[in-house]
Amino acid sequence: GFASTRESNVSATIGNNAPVLEAIDGPGGNTISDQSVTEDSITDLLVTFTVTDTNGVDDINLATANVTFYNSTYASGDVNYLSTNTSCDNTANISGSQMNISCTIEISYWYTNGEWNITAGITDYQSASSGNVTNITIASTTAIVIGPTSISFTGLALGVENNTAGDDPIVVNNTGNYYVSANNVRVAGLDLVGEVTDTQAI
After folding, report:
1. What is the arithmetic mean of pLDDT over 175-181?
2. Percent of the chain with pLDDT over 90
3. Sign of torsion, CA 134 47 29 126?
4. Is the Cβ–Cβ distance between 24 and 133 less than 8 Å?
5. Cα–Cα distance for residue pair 159/154, rounded to 1 Å
6. Conformational region of residue 114, where left means phi above 0, alpha means psi within -120 to 50, and beta covers everything else
7. Which residues fall within 8 angstroms of residue 97, CB to CB, at 6 or more apart?
8. pTM for the whole structure
9. Is the Cβ–Cβ distance between 133 and 21 less than 8 Å?
10. 3-state helix/strand/coil string of the chain
């Protein structure tokens, strides 16, 4: 007759589902607002995003989370117009398959006004990745620092030529992101006494 039992080997392969990086937001899940630079300083911008992985949050490799902030007008990799952060934090596990991540990027005061891109990326432990992008605008900020505010000439006498100042130069430093070309710098002389009529001045 037939045997009542039989042994067999069964194998199964479990596939991996790639993570999904949701929309890039600001604090509290709100839309990131347009930004202005801080004169002669750095502005911190907090970026948050949710990553969903149906394989579970344990499959999300937090160490690979990254955010890049750049202006497409400039060459790729130009550190003067590029900000990156690869040290992001797990703010909270929303569920067994969702992780909320936050990253801080720095906006330097010289970052040009106009449209900037924010890209975020993440990879799971099976090397499957996901990313997203959003855009914001940086406003134009005009700011300068001048020092010293004036210069003095000592030992001036009638007929003396090329008598230079003793406390020059005056340095004009652009501490905003508004582009000022060399031809837009003007110098004005005040209280200049006339050479012929010394009772008159301009």
Report:
1. 90
2. 59
3. positive
4. yes
5. 14
6. left
7. 52, 53, 54, 55, 56, 57
8. 0.78
9. no
10. CCCCCCCCCCCCCCCCCCCEECCCECHHHCCCCCECCCCCCEEEEEEEEEEECCCCHHHEEEEEEEEEEECCCCCCCCHHHEEEECCCEEEEECCCCEEEEEEEEEEECCCCCEEEEEEEEEEECCCCEEEEEEEEEECCCCCEEEECCCCCCCCCCCCCCCCCCCCCCCEEEECCCCCCCHHHCCCCCCCCECCCCCCCEC
More confident residue, 82 or 11: 82
Q: What is the pLDDT of residue 181?
A: 81
Give yes or no for residue 27 having a pLDDT over 80: yes
Mention every residue, 6+ apart, whose C-beta is less than 8 A from residue 73: 81, 112, 114
CB contact at 8 A, 107 and 176: no
Q: List, in sequence order, every residue forming a beta bridge with 129; answer none if it has no partner.
A: 123
Max mean pLDDT range (8-22, 69-83, 125-139): 125-139
* Whole-number Å distance between alpha carbons of 8 and 11: 10
* Residue type (1 letter), 89: D
Residue pointed to by tokens 């110098």: 187
Count the neighbouring beta carbons within 10 Å of the beta carbon of residue 23.
12
Distance CA 85, CA 106 (A): 9
Tell me what the mean pLDDT of segment 31-41 comes to: 96
